[in-house]
Amino acid sequence: MSDQSLRGFVEMVQRDFPDDFVRISAPVRRDLDITSAVFELERSGKYPVVMFDDVEGFDLPVVTNVAGNRQLLAAAMGTSPDDLPLAYRERCQNYQPVEVVGDAPFEEIVLEGDDVDIFVVETDANGVKRNPYRLVDGRGAADLELKDVVVPLSARLTSGGDAVAILSEVEDWAVLTMAAESLGAMECAKDLTLEYLKTRQQFGQPIGEFQLMQGKLADMYTTTNACKSYVYTVARACDKSRVTRKDAAGAILYAAEKATLVALDAIQCLGGNGYINDYPTGRYLRDAKLYEIGAGTSEIRRMLIGREIFEETK
Questions:
Q1: What is the pLDDT of residues 8-48, one digit of tens each?
Q2: How far is it, in rounded angstroms, from Cα 49 to Cα 19?
Q3: CA 125 to CA 144: how far, in whole Å?
Q4: 3-state class of 65 per DSSP?
Q5: Of 13, 53, 226, 237, which is most buried, counting CB atoms within 10 Å of its CB?
Q6: What predicted TM-score, i.e. pTM, was given to this entire model?
Q7: CB neighbours (10 Å) of residue 53?
């Protein structure tokens, strides 16, 4: 189709596919009448392009369902229906099926359906809004809001269901990264405690010489190393693309909860000094507890692990 505008698409349908074009002259309301009409047509097994000549609030005719018929869409793009992604369809169910003739170029169609796709969206694109804030460790982050953002089809990175597998793998890596941060919190808490036990004097000797303090230190050491072994094993599996969701969730579940216990032991060993801000033990505890909450709580991780194990043994 030489004319890639919406007007060109409508003219092509009227000329080459007259049976797939419906024109309604009666006055209609945008939100209710348009969507209801399209739904009724689809329920009867018809997927025509529909033009409404008189729509409340519009001076120009309104066209909808431009992506509801794969045959028409393929003809417009110069390809076959089998080569179109399954995600092509107009999102009438969200009451946003309307494009105004003369304003909307044909490329600005909506990709939606059972498939998930990944797109590149420029940060300065219209409709992209960033709300920056600071994390607990002072690093910058931002909430990203997308509203009526239009991207070209060339910005699409995946097709045919590849996106789900990619996103799952990225999620596993992200979860494992948090597990590694839990290890860092444990190491910091353990090292700080060891140094404190060497320098803090009581009854004329370092408190690290007391057996109870040595027992606390031993628990922190063995717990940290056990978590490190688990996380490193899962990380090696990730490097070889052999990680499973239950292993990624298990690594962060175990490491995060143990990091909280190690941080609490550090505070206990430092006594009152562990509670005040003169020492960073409170910061270690906040960081460790965050890993039990962020990117999925411990309860969600337990549910995921149990479900995966149960499904594997059916």
A1: 777 888 888 888 888 888 787 765 566 666 666 666 667 77
A2: 10
A3: 12
A4: coil
A5: 13
A6: 0.57
A7: 14
